[in-house]
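Give me the fold.
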Amino acid sequence: MGDKSRAFVTKALEVATQNPEFLPRSFDLEEMRRDLRIFEDLYPVLLSLTQLQELVDDTCIAAGSEAYVAALAIYNYAKASGDVTGLDAVIDEMGRRFTRRSKKKKPEAAAS
């Protein structure tokens, strides 16, 4: 619930509390109060968790980026050394990360 909806719900509760006679008997005003109270109690927790999630996301992205840069450096050092016996297969395997698939040629239309 955003700020406008929260204001709307609060105002509706206020109106219903001051004028309960127009509500049907089946309407549970106390249930609405409890729901709003729970929402208000949980809202700061939600904001904190959202902020924490953003921090975790940012940290994961930064750590992943740094690990990838380090992996690229290792790959490039291994490729450049050229004289490390037994690494050719591993270097080729790592190099597959950068191979691009060739675009398939469109079949030419048959000449009529």
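The CA atoms of residues 69 and 98 lie 14 Å apart.
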